[in-house]
Amino acid sequence: MKKIFLSILSLSIVFLFLTGCKDNNAPTSEQKSNKSSVFISIKKAEDTKVFSKQSLSINYMQVEVFDTLNNSDESYVDESYIDKTPINIKAFTKVASEWTVSLNNLQRNKYYIFVVTAFSSNDADVSKLIFKGIKTHEIVEGINTLEINLSQTANADTIENLPSASSIVTTTLVNGSIELSFNISNPYEEALNWEIRNDGVSTISDNFSSNSGVTSTLNTAIKLNYLETSSNSYLLLLSTEDATVSYHFSIDIDDNDEVDITVEKAPVITKLIVSVLGNELSLTPELDTVADAYAWEIVENLGSAINIDDTTAQNITLSPYSETSEFKIKLTVTATSGAFSYRIYHVFGNYSSDENNNVVIPPISTESLNIKKTQQTTSYDYLGDIDATVKDDGFYEKGLTPSYAKDSSTKIVTDNVTTLMWQDDNDTTLDWSRADQYCTDSSIGGFNDWRLPSMSELDSLKTYYPLDPVSSSHDVLIDGIFEVRSSFKYWSSFQYQAYQNTDRAWYVDFRMGNQGDGNVNRSGTYRVRCVRGTLTKPTFTKDIAQGIVTDSLNNLEWQDNGAFVAETWKEAMERCESLSLGEVGKDGGWRLPNVNELMSIVNRQ
């Protein structure tokens, strides 16, 4: 079984910028050319243990150097470096416990972005990446010290590894009885207990032919007879040793004996961010959807005594925290419906303080999926008829469930999956230049970093199912939480990349779901929806021998071999389902990707 551990690691990285001889009468060639050498030394890089008690020993480390667009702010990290080629890549060498590397010919009085990556493999195998740190720094004459905090990235825990239920439905049988059915997914094939409780109490319900059970298989289909003739609400609980996820469902029977069921899944903890200041430990959870209540509990104290300041707060502080602290902590989150989930984390570690006794702890990266579900739940054949045997997106239902929260006072909608914040108080049309300036000048909600969204960011808002719950005249492919719901085209920040059409920019159409570069040039007018925040981009690596490209962020593998010909949708699906390549794929087999997965590999640069 996969255990969850949060480990605390402090890495001190010292950069020494050497400008050579100080004798002004005998300058070095580097001084003449205003260039400097950089010597990087990692003074402390402790091995530690995290998820599954697997050692995260660093076996290879490298630094990449990128130019930056910003040359005046050391706290600024220019995200465009992701799409650029580094101007220098150099591997560290290790002597005893110290890692060092030297870089030459960096220009003084210029800012660079330094990206340090550490791997458990003996080379830069992205699948073995365990720590990463990014820092913008100016090269100046003399000796400078720069610290980069390395964030843990390997063996990340994701909500895909939690137990889950799907297809919770009721069926009226020929004899008039009501059947409840659902499917249980048990990723680790560990002992999983399921039970159905009456709503609002902890007692198991007697209103079904069976009310509990245990399974250790990957997928389990459950069918039960509903013994009541009236409407009632219940909780379905799925529990393993370290986690529980519940679903609130209501069975409604009207006067004509028509049966309906509504289901709400509990919020789930997707990430726990750990930070330390002095003798206090801060824990900040991130969830896949909004919770109504939080409850923290020390399950077991394995080290020196430690206390929680407020057990019902969303973010908590524990103290006193020291090197001998080690404990298991349980966080339960509850929705307004009463559906709840909890996870148990084992927090431990050792660390060294800096001269001010401050310890900066990198967040524990979950590297979870940021691709949303299309929310298609029914499968169709190539003629458009319902067919449960067809392995389309209605069969697989891959991705994260879209989730949004809205601040009614500022009219800002926050995407809980991508963490992007969106404007929702403007329905005007502008040309591209004015749209770009409009977002730059905006201060909605007191924020001054609004901007025109990228194509990928606009794409992340599109929703395909269910049908538009707001518009009665036509479907708008955006969540119903948005009040401004124009079906028209919205400008993106991406300018058309073609020498013969440099006066165009791209848009996304929320009526058809398509994109374009504009039938009119940038002087034409489309609508504007400003955004703030950063959309995490996937990282790709290729196994040339097998012809497989791996997206480590979204845990997807892509076929990249063979000669392809035009196929019908049915032929393409059958070919993917029968494909034998590599180790059969990360989730058990190859399949045709859904539209959101395909959009994730589009590179418009």
What labels describe this entry?
single chain, about 600 residues, mainly beta, Immunoglobulin-like, 5 domains, nine-stranded mixed sheet, five-stranded antiparallel sheet, 6 helices, 39 strands, about 40% strand, disordered N terminus, Lcl_C, signal
Written account of the structure:
The chain is mainly beta and 605 residues long. The protein folds into five domains: 5-152, Immunoglobulins (Immunoglobulin-like, Sandwich), CATH 2.60.40.10; 163-265, Sandwich (Immunoglobulin-like); 269-349, Immunoglobulins (Immunoglobulin-like); 404-532, Mannose-Binding Protein A, Chain A; 540-599, no CATH class. The strands form ten sheets. Strands 1, 15, 16, 18, 19, 20, 23, 26 and 27 form a nine-stranded mixed β-sheet that branches. Strands 7-6-10-11-12 form a five-stranded antiparallel β-sheet, with no helix packed on it. The model is unreliable at 1-32, 43-56, 154-160 and 350-368 (pLDDT under 50). Residues 412-532, 547-604 form the Lcl C-terminal domain. InterPro entries: Lcl_C. It comes from uncultured Sulfurovum sp. Keywords: Signal.
Quick gist of this model?
With 605 residues, the protein is mostly beta strands.
Give a topology summary.
Blueprint: E1 5-8, E2 12-18, H1 29-32, E3 35-44, E4 49-50, E5 54-55, E6 60-67, E7 88-91, E8 93-95, E9 98-107, E10 110-119, E11 129-139, E12 151-152, E13 164-172, E14 178-185, E15 192-198, E16 212-215, E17 219-226, E18 232-239, E19 243-253, E20 259-265, E21 269-277, E22 280-287, E23 293-301, E24 307-308, E25 316-319, E26 326-334, E27 340-349, H2 393-396, E28 404-407, E29 412-415, E30 421-423, E31 429-431, H3 432-441, H4 455-459, E32 489-495, E33 505-509, E34 515-516, E35 525-527, E36 531-532, E37 540-543, E38 548-551, E39 556-559, H5 569-577, H6 595-599
Parallel strand pairs: 1-27
Antiparallel strand pairs: 2-3, 3-9, 4-5, 6-7, 6-10, 8-9, 10-11, 11-12, 13-14, 14-17, 15-16, 15-18, 18-19, 19-20, 19-27, 21-22, 22-25, 23-26, 24-25, 26-27, 28-29, 29-30, 30-36, 31-35, 32-33, 33-34, 37-38, 38-39
